[in-house]
Prior knowledge:
Strand order of the largest sheet: 7-8-9-3-10-11
Strand content: 25-35%
Oligomer: single chain
Distance between the termini: 32 Å
Low-confidence stretches: none
Number of strands: 11
Structural class: alpha/beta
Shape: globular
Largest sheet: 6 strands, mixed
Amino acid sequence: MEEIIKVQNLKKSFGTLDVIKDISFTVEKGQVLSIIGPSGSGKSTILRCISQLEDVTDGTITICGQTLVEKGQYCNKEQRHNIILQSGLVFQNFNLFLHYSVLQNVMQPQIKVLKKSKDEAAQTAMTLLERMGLAEKADSYPCQLSGGQQQRVSIARALALKPQVLLFDEPTSALDPELTGEILAVIKELAAEKMTMVVVTHEMAFARDISTHIIFMDGGVIVEEGNAGEVIENPKQERTKLFLSRFSSQ
């Protein structure tokens, strides 16, 4: 299968604090990788390194066959720009432009990044908003939407750039429990359509249901990895068992 993301010996430090310690994994086309683990284990930092929001300390990241960074050395600025277009990051706190309407939030990245015309961008945006069940909210502003609706707008915005892989950083953590389901349903639909995804989540049942592969992290290292059923239902490492025991009711 085609490798979409390949991470080798990734390390990330903030001063003297080693947040990621020599991590390696691959994600192939159509796969869904869920990264689970306690807060502070380095899960979100991995996504930030892949999406270039953080520079790595050392290691290699290849996206869609293009090497972003090799043994800590980054490619040139033009190549970095081309590579960043291959992935779309959905933040836990939405990161919408509050002074833009819903439609404008989905249009603007297409105009600025893909150099689309306003008409073409608007057409794509409306198609995606319809898919998210938000066509009637096109002229609304983020402050007029529920948290779940705002997150669906942010997913539409990420999809508008036609990335090869979507990265979700705890997409339901800022939502009330009753709104979580609508976002999980959207991600499940994308998984059913074989969208390649990397999902950082605390929703264990969700991770089990949508993932082809799961990584459990703690202290900046991968403690255990394998297919969803193996890791969630039959973990081998004691640390994984202890972490998952809190979710046994799921």
